Task: structure prediction
Amino acid sequence: MQQTDLGLNLSTKRTRKREFLSQMDRVMPWGDLVAVVSPYTRESKTGRPPFAVLTMLRIHFMQQWFTLSDPAMEEALHDVPLFREFAGLSLGDRLPDESTILRFRHLLEKHKLADQILATVNELLQRKGLMLKAGTVVDATLIAAPSSTKNKTGERDPDMHQTKKGNQWHFGMKAHIGVDADSGMVHTVRGTAANVNDVVEGNSLLHGQETDVFADAGYQGAHKRPDAREGTTWHVAMRPGKRRALDKTKASGQLTEQVEKIKASIRAKVEHQFRVIKQQFGHVKVRYRGLVKNTAQLKTLFALSNLWMARRKLLALDGVVRPKAAIGA
Result:
């Protein structure tokens, strides 16, 4: 396939979207990601030739970055020159339709390649010295799901459930993540129904090499659960009522308050990841039915979020702009 300029030349106006794609293009380990997916693709003996794995990966990632469904992604490739350029396509080329985009996503889901995409990104971050193993921060966030029964099946998604947070009820799922306490990069992602208590998933979010774990008050008792790991110390926030009751006129109360503030400053790193996928990438509600598909998407989103958060350090470590990946490699 003929290579195209990815729209990153100096003669083109540097819009925020163009700059975003430029940065992500330069920090993405394209060669490693293509190597992950390629063994699961096969050449078609009949019909039109398949699109390059790199092209489909670029399209799949644009769907995550810009919250595009399969039909919307097909339309965007026809309507938005920048998207075609990023995918390595031109308007005169045959463009992937929504069925092609859907089949590629199903390929990733069938072989659980979202797990390998996250692992590949994190291997890059570790090679660059941007992820350590000493500590983990755990937390969870709610992802809304449609509660209406006005659909083909006439019922809500059975994998989703409702839960009460504060005085408000929410229907959907939870994204549970384990984050490197030093860099704030996500290393573990699990998806559950919204009514699963955070503490139930706490120990499953550890990679096993950390010595310290930081968590909010919802993880009280995590160290006593049957799946707790030996040699790991949990630093869990005090319950809000107990913290408010501290006597800060006494030295002991002041010291306890200082410790709580330190733990809170470490836990804050996990919130950055939730902010990126919800505000930067616009992922505020589930896109598919079922936990399996939505959890796979979350793993891809957090892999992309890791690269977005680390992009400046990665570019600084490279020193110069990396060559653009060859389309069809």
